[in-house]
Specification:
Radius of gyration: 21 Å
Number of helices: 15
Number of strands: 13
Strand order of the largest sheet: 5-4-3-2-1-6-8-7
Order of helices and strands: EEEEEHEEHHEHHHEEEHHHHHEHHHEH
Helix content: 25-40%
């Protein structure tokens, strides 16, 4: 059985999924797992296609000190115990820069070019690239495909792409990229089956999770996003502030004496819901808390979603549907209800019963703007891109060197 391994690596975890290649190029999920607690309390957890547990193992800290070590353990478990021998590996890479508008086969040159964007996505990019380097070193003949969160947004117009700064900076790559593109691409490809009447229309998709953003789709293509040059912009997130006056950064440097690296760490790790609440960056904990600052953080999150919805509706010159996705968007009925209330002026009328049972369509029959909950699947999107790219490269032999 030919399989594709999908890897999504972070600073303290490596998530992985295995897809089997079925007839006529379709994919079926076989295994879903992760190693988390890297460098602290490493643990491997995995389940099969039907959710049945396959592994739950703890490891000593020294055994899983970093992402390459985690990749080694996950690879050994897949290879030796499950006899998984993938023909290719697909990776989520957050920042593709101005040159990549689609997935690409990886070599050392590609990795070197992608390293230039580490400072633009410090929470993600270095960890996304680590497993790629590990596999390049150990299995140089195994095809690897990088799939970019920025690529889907390369359809933006020049007007949407530019900042009001001298053109030389745009030429150097200082522009509005947008992120969470793999999630938005999956939603755009899924909407024709979920809601064919609006799939080609004007749709706002809210990807609400620890990282949060919103995207304006028109005809299934991204025309605007709340995120820009980096993954700091737009909505407030778990630990990132979202939209921020650049003068705040200047103040932190000139008046508070913070270095550039300290400011970067502060903005990526100490702000957002965590900084505003002083309680947690987890929406579930904030919703359960009675601390007034937790309430303020949620109020702020909802308010900014409403403001950005207005901006995106203006970019679309109207609105035909609104879609919730990602961890908070898919699972928090109370958050969805509050956002829907903010969108009442657009014609949104929520059905409380359908919302509480997490139905696919959660707006009332008479709502001028239908509202949907569509679970995202970035890993499947990566697997599909990987398979497509392999099929477009007939001169290569994906079986020449498997992970063995």
């Amino acid at each position: 059985m030919d399989t594709i391994l999908v890897v999504n690596a972070g600073s303290s975890s490596v998530k992985f999924q295995v897809f089997s290649i079925e007839g006529e190029g379709s994919l079926r999920r076989q295994i879903k797992g992760q190693i988390d607690g890297i460098g602290s309390r490493p643990r491997l957890r995995a389940s099969g296609a039907s959710g049945d547990p396959l592994a739950d193992r703890a490891y000593p800290i020294e055994a899983v000190a970093d992402v390459p070590a985690a990749m080694g353990i996950a690879g050994e478990w897949l290879r030796n115990e499950l006899r998984i021998d993938p023909i290719a590996v697909g990776h989520r890479v957050v920042h593709g820069g101005p040159d990549h508008d689609g997935p690409v086969l990886v070599d050392h040159g590609v990795v070197a070019r992608l390293e230039r964007f580490v400072s633009l996505a410090p929470l993600h990019q270095p960890h996304n690239l680590a497993p790629i380097r590990t596999i390049l070193a150990g299995f140089p003949g195994l095809p690897q495909v990088a799939c970019f969160d920025t690529a889907f947004h390369r359809t933006h117009s020049a007007v949407a792409d530019h900042y009001a700064i001298p053109h030389q900076f745009y030429a150097e790559g200082v522009r509005r990229y947008g992120f969470h593109g793999l999630s938005y691409e999956y939603i755009a490809k899924t909407l024709p089956q979920v809601a064919p009447d609006i799939a080609k229309g004007r749709v706002i998709v809210a990807h609400l999770g620890s990282g949060a953003s919103m995207c304006a789709l028109k005809g299934g293509r991204s025309i605007e996003s709340t995120m820009g040059f980096t993954a700091l912009d737009g909505l407030p997130m778990g630990t990132r502030p979202g939209q921020l006056d650049p003068g705040v950064v200047l103040y932190l440097i000139s008046e508070k004496g913070m270095s550039a690296s300290n400011v970067q760490n502060f903005l990526y790790r100490d702000c957002g819901l965590k900084g505003l609440s002083g309680v947690s960056n987890d929406m579930r904990e904030l919703e359960a808390s009675e601390d007034p600052r937790a309430k303020l953080a949620i109020d702020h999150f909802v308010y900014r979603i409403g403001l950005n919805a207005g901006m995106l509706a203006a970019a679309l010159q109207g609105l035909d549907a609104f879609v919730f996705t990602a961890g908070i968007g898919e699972n928090s009925a109370s958050l969805r209800a509050r956002v829907a209330e903010q969108l009442g002026w657009l014609g949104v009328a929520l059905d409380p019963a359908e919302n509480s049972r997490h139905a696919r369509l959660i707006s009332r029959a008479g709502s001028r703007i239908p509202v949907y909950v569509v679970p995202t699947d970035e890993e499947l999107m990566i697997a599909q891109h990987t398979l497509t790219l392999l099929m477009k490269a007939p001169s290569s032999n994906p079986r020449q060197e498997r992970v063995s």
